Amino acid sequence: MQRDFDLVVTILGALRDAPGPNLSTHDIKNVALAPHPEEQGLQLIAHHLDLLEDAGLVKQISETAATAGATRWRITWKGYDALEQDEDDEEDEEFDAEE
């Protein structure tokens, strides 16, 4: 499975903009991949959440053995910093295009 940087940014944004302090894997899937089939979408999101956790950008805060979709995640300080850096990079690209 390939790493999808756009999906990474979407996941981090969903966690940042969540109405509460965390989201379940299933909630993240619904925000990030609404049109994907359930099973395929959960696998894709779970893979990217694992990658984000490896990088220290998100933290798993609970896990339910019955269903991986119930695992809850929160964004970390490094995750916020990564999103801000991505937004700064996008602003720089827009500025360079205007010149």
- The average pLDDT is 84
Form type: globular
**N-to-C order of helices and strands:** HEHHEEH
Q: State the helix count.
A: 4
Tell me about the biggest sheet? 3 strands, antiparallel
Radius of gyration: 14 Å
Q: What is the SS-derived class?
A: mainly alpha
- Low-confidence segments, given as residue ranges, are none
Tell me how many strands there are. 3
Q: Give me the side-by-side strand order of the main sheet.
A: 1-3-2
In angstroms, what separates the terminal alpha carbons? 38 Å
Percent of sequence in beta strands: 5-15%
Helix content, binned percent: 55-70%
Furnish the topology, listing elements before pairings.
Elements: H1 5-16, E1 23-24, H2 25-32, H3 38-54, E2 58-62, E3 72-75, H4 77-98
Antiparallel strand pairs: 1-3, 2-3
Helix pairs in contact: 1-2, 1-4, 2-3
What does the model show?
This protein has 99 residues and is mostly helical. 60% of the residues lie in helices and 11% in strands. The protein contains 4 helices and 3 strands, in the order H-E-H-H-E-E-H. It has a 3-stranded antiparallel β-sheet with strand order 1-3-2. Helix 1 crosses helix 2 and helix 1 crosses helix 4. The chain is globular, with a radius of gyration of 14 Å.
